[in-house]
Amino acid sequence: xxxxxxxxxxxxxxxxxxxxxxxxxxxxxxxxxxxxxxxxxxxxxxxxxxxxxxxxxxxxxxxxxxxxxxxxxxxxxxxxxxxxxxxxxxxxxxxxxxxxxxxxxxxxxxxxxxxxxxxxxxxxxxxxxxxxxxxxxxxxxxxxxxxxxxxxxxxxxxxxxxxxxxxxxxxxxxxxxxxxxxxxxxxxxxxxxxxxxxxxxxxxxxxxxxxxxxxxxxxxxxxxxxxxxxxxxxxxxxxxxxxxxxxxxxxxxxxxxxxxxxxxxxxxxxxxxxxxxxxxxxxxxxxxxxxxxxxxxxxxxxxxxxxxxxxxxxxxxxxxxxxxxxxxxxxxxxxxxxxxxxxxxxxxxxxxxxxxxxxxxxxxxxxxxxxxxxxxxxxxxxxxxxxxxxxxxxxxxxxxxxxxxxxxxxxxxxxxxxxxxxxxxxxxxxxxxxxxxxxxxxxxxxxxxxxxxxxxxxxxxxxxxxxxxxxxxxxxxxxxxxxxxxxxxxxxxxxxxxxxxxxxxxxxxxxxxxxxxxxxxxxxxxxxxxxxxxxxxxxxxxxxxxxxxxxxxxxxxxxxxxxxxxxxxxxxxxxxxxxxxxxxxxxx
Length: 588
Description:
38% helix; alpha/beta; 18 helices; 17% strand; 2 domains; Nitrilase/N-carbamoyl-D-aminoacid amidohydrolase; Rossmann fold; 6-stranded mixed beta sheet
C-alpha cells in the first residue's frame, strides 16, 4: 500500500557541540493521513514521516500514543482482527525502518495471555525493539507510559531523555496543562522531555483531540525550561549514543488541588480565565465539526436558526468549520422555522446573521404542518400544553433531517450542556441531531463565546450578536404576548442558568453533596440571589438532572471541551432510573 506523501516543515536547527556528535529529537503531532482503526495505513504514514525526519537529520522521534491504531477505538480494541493487524504493522515498521538512522517511539494495543488489554509503547531502532513500556488500556487517560533513554557517553552523569507519547482528550488536559506536566516531569526526573499528542484523526464522538501539542523541555542547571514551541516540529539535542533506561515507569498528571479549589469558589467555573482559553475553545468546536463533516463525507451542514444564543453559536462555529475545509459559506444551510411563539426580534436576528455570514438561507413556516398534525391526533391547538410545544420541536427536527438528506448534509445540533443536564429539550425533537456541537458547552459559556465572536468579528455582525445576547432565553413554543414579547422565558421557569451551571460543576466535576453545594452557592451568590431562590433552584436542578437521564442515554455525538461531560459513552454513565431521593434528602 503506497503511503501518501505529506509535506512537513523541517525542525529548527540547533547548535551542535564540537566535542561530541549530537542528534535531534522531535515530536510528530501532525496527524496528517491518519486513519482510525487502520493499522497498515498508519504504518505507511509513520514510515513516510520517519523518512522525512531522517532527511532532516532528526535521530529520535516520538509519535502519539497508540498511533498505529488510534487511541479512541473503544471496544474495537477487543477485536482480534485489529490487534493482529497492529502486530503486522509493527513487523512492517521493523523491516522497513531498519536502514533509517532514526530511533522512534510508537504505540499499539496488546492483549496479555490472561486477557488484559494494554496500551504498549515501543521504542524501535535499526529494525529492533530496544525498549517497551505499557499501561492498562482502561487506565485513566492522564496516565502515560513513556520510554526513557540514557546516554552511554557520559557514565557519571548521563544525559537522560524521556520520550512520552500521549493521547489525552483536550478536554482533560489543555495545552497549558500539558506544558505544566512536561515541565514538572522533566524537573522531577532531571531529564530532557518530549511529549507528543495527536492533532487530528482521533474520534470526535465524545472527546476532542484536534489541537497539536508538542512539549519539548530541556533541563538547565537542574531547572526545566520549555524549548521553542513556535516551530511546527521543535526538537532537542541529545547524545548520539544512548540506551534504554534499566527500568521503565509510568507518569501521571494530577490536577492541581489549589486550582480546583479556586474553581469551586468561582460563580462561573466553566468560563476560561484568559483570551487564549476562549480562542482555544472556539477553535476546538470549529475543528471538531470540520473533522466530523470530513469523516462523514458530508458536503454541507444544516442548522435550524432561531435567533437564540445556542443556534447562534452553532451557526458561527459552522461558518468557521466549512471555511477550514475550503468550502464556501453557503455550504451552511440556515433554516428559519417560525412557529406559534416566534417573535419578530428573534426571527429578524436569525435571518440577518445568516445573511451576513453568507449562508444558504431558507424559511419554512411550521404552523400549517403543525395544525394538520393537531387535527390528525385530535389535539385542540388552543390548548398550549406539552403536546402543543413538543409537536413544533419535532416538526422542526423532521424538516432539518429531510433537508439534510437531500443535500448530503449533516444536521448540526444546537442544544447546550446546561439544557442537556436539565433535560430541557424535546425527546426526538431538538434532542436529536447528527452532530451536537454545543453539547459540551454550558449556557454561561455559550454566552461568553457569542460575546467573543461579536468582539472578534466586529462590523455589521457585532450589533446583531449583541442584540441576541440581550434577548431573554426562550424556546418560543407558546404564543407571544400582545406586545410581541415571548411568553415562554426559560429562566423564569427553571431559574438562572448561572446557578444551574454552578450546581452542575460542583455535583459532577467536584462530586460534592447537595448540602455542600447549597452552602457554597449561598456564599458565592450572596446579594444576587436570595437563599430561598438558591435552594429552590437547586432542588429543581437535582430532580430534573436525575429524571431526565433517559434523554442523555441516547444523545448524539458531540465534542467535549471541558473536563465535564454528560455523554453516556465516555462521560456520565448512570442508569436512567436512578432515584434522586438521596440527594434531595441531603438538602433537608
